[in-house]
Automatic annotation (TrEMBL):
Keywords: Membrane, Transmembrane, Transmembrane helix
Domain of life, per lineage: Bacteria
Regions that span the bilayer: 12-31, 43-59, 65-81, 93-112
Protein's recorded name: Uncharacterized protein
Amino acid sequence: MESVLSFLENFFKYSTLWMILCLICTILYLDTKKNKNEGKEKYVLLKIIGFCILGFINIKINTKPTIIIPIGFIIYYLFINKKIKRNYKIKKNACILGVLVIYLGSLNSYIYKELEYRDKSIIVQTLNLKDLRKQWEDAREKLNIDIGNEVLANMEITSDRNGNIKNMSWETYDDVNNNKYEVEYNKNKKSINKLNFKVTEVENNLKNKNSDIIPNNEHKISMFEMIDKINAIQFNDMISSDCIEYKIKYKKKFKNEEYNKNNKNYYISSYDEEKYAYNLELGQKIHFPMKGNIITLSDTNSKNKELINIFIDRNEYVDNQIESIEKLNLSIENNQNSKKSTSTLHIEKDNYLLNQVVNALDYYTWEEVNKDELKGKNNLKNSIIISSGLDVNLKIYEDYEFIHYKYNNDEIIYKCNKDIYSDIKSLLKK
């Protein structure tokens, strides 16, 4: 039965093409039926096309079902009909043909929509994280759908340590057609495992009233991109050895305050060509705030609600830092003669220099130390203060190995190579 429905769906999907072909053939046929006994008439074919176009003219009333008023045919019947002197019949049929095309097109659209928006499902034996890309492509072919490149809104997968998926759900949005696509899979030992697919139309008025349900384009990621990330992440390296089952979750409307710096926060640092896997680095406090797409990892059986966050937008956290900074203020203070110079870097026009500054900060090793290290050291030499619109304040001292870092209510003292001051200062002189 599903194969029959798929055939009908494809047939009505391309109904416009065969309707145009039939329309052209019918117009040419009507041209052959002109009555020569009524005398020669110029441009009959063009007049047939004109009457057909007149039949196309209509007014649609957006109700359920949609009401179509053939205003063109009404005009023909009331004002033109009795004035035709030659080839009356074929001109009338041409106008009727235009009306038929309107209603047939509307009927075809309705049938295709009902077929397209039906729920679909296929039998799936097993699903595994490492083979998810190929398995989803096979599923798309069997379901006769082309879904994967739309914007991903939500994703949740529960898996065992071997990567065998127990259940999963995906939710994506197609902004062009205003469609929402949902994919669900639940493994049940007592019954046949099915992969379910559902598509629904997001109405324009609903989209405008509830903008949160439609992801914006900032940091957007597609279902395929997320699957590729999942295929290339070694989740077992991050979970505890006693974890039997874990949950991978992604939510598009993620807010910065939802992650906790005390949790384990990883970022993708590079890609291992030999292992076909991403190398992940554990983020430190100095790396925050980060901004962009993250997935969370949690032990489903653990009472501890601690989450593992994986920032997946960039291959280096430096890019996350630059992306999160809209404007960077740089101040160079000279404590000996009270001179102070200030400059502001903007992410659009100074992007290259911003990257150089953040890369210079990332070059050195940062070691968090006790805050008492800076007590009583009021006679420090020159310093560079770096601050952003995200309440980040970083103070780097000349000829001194400690750096003062402030973010919101956090104050941290880091030990770092004192050459970092000269590196940053030399960049600002360029």
